[in-house]
Amino acid sequence: MRKFFSLAIIAAAILFAVNPAMAAEGAEAVAKTPWGSVAAGISLAFAAAFGAIGQGKAIVAACEGIARNPGATGNIRTTLLIGLAFIESLVLYVLVIAFAIK
């Protein structure tokens, strides 16, 4: 848990350092600086990494739930697929925003 918080602090520091580039006027000014690409790459990397971690934890929990109660397989599977879709949609939103910044 400590590693997660230290990574979150580092990510926040990087994003705050990139913030002045985002305050420039218009998207054209951001596109002229390399910071837009850096922010897009970092945000996409974090979204993909933590999205994958979240999906892995969801799958593990679903497998454990099915192993404990095989009768609830259908309900668990449906809930799992909906949850995985939500997690993946967050990563795709970051991808769209990264392309908009870049």
Give an overview of the whole structure.
The chain has 102 residues and is mainly alpha-helical. The protein has one domain (2-101): F1FO ATP Synthase. It has helices spanning 2-22, 26-32, 35-68, 73-101. Helix 3 packs antiparallel against helix 4. The two termini are 32 Å apart. It is a multi-pass membrane protein. One of its GO terms (cellular component) is plasma membrane. Keywords: ATP synthesis, Cell membrane, CF(0), Hydrogen ion transport, Hydrolase, Ion transport, Lipid-binding, Membrane, Signal, Transmembrane, Transmembrane helix, Transport. Belongs to the ATPase C chain family.
Short description:
The chain has helices at residues 2-22, 26-32, 35-68, 73-101. Helix 1 (2-22) runs antiparallel to helix 3 and helix 3 packs antiparallel against helix 4.
CATH topology: F1FO ATP Synthase
Q: How many helices in DSSP terms?
A: 4
Number of strands: 0
Reported CATH architecture? Up-down Bundle
Q: Please report the distance between the alpha carbons of the first and last residues.
A: 32 Å
Query: Could you give me the name of the CATH homologous superfamily?
Result: F1F0 ATP synthase subunit C
CATH class: Mainly Alpha
Q: In what range is the share of β-strand residues?
A: under 5%
Q: If you average the pLDDT, what whole number results?
A: 79
Gyration radius (Cα, Å) is: 18 Å
Which spans have pLDDT < 50 for at least 5 consecutive residues?
none
Signal peptide: 1-23
Membrane topology: Multi-pass membrane protein
Family: Belongs to the ATPase C chain family.
Keywords: ATP synthesis, Cell membrane, CF(0), Hydrogen ion transport, Hydrolase, Ion transport, Lipid-binding, Membrane, Signal, Transmembrane, Transmembrane helix, Transport
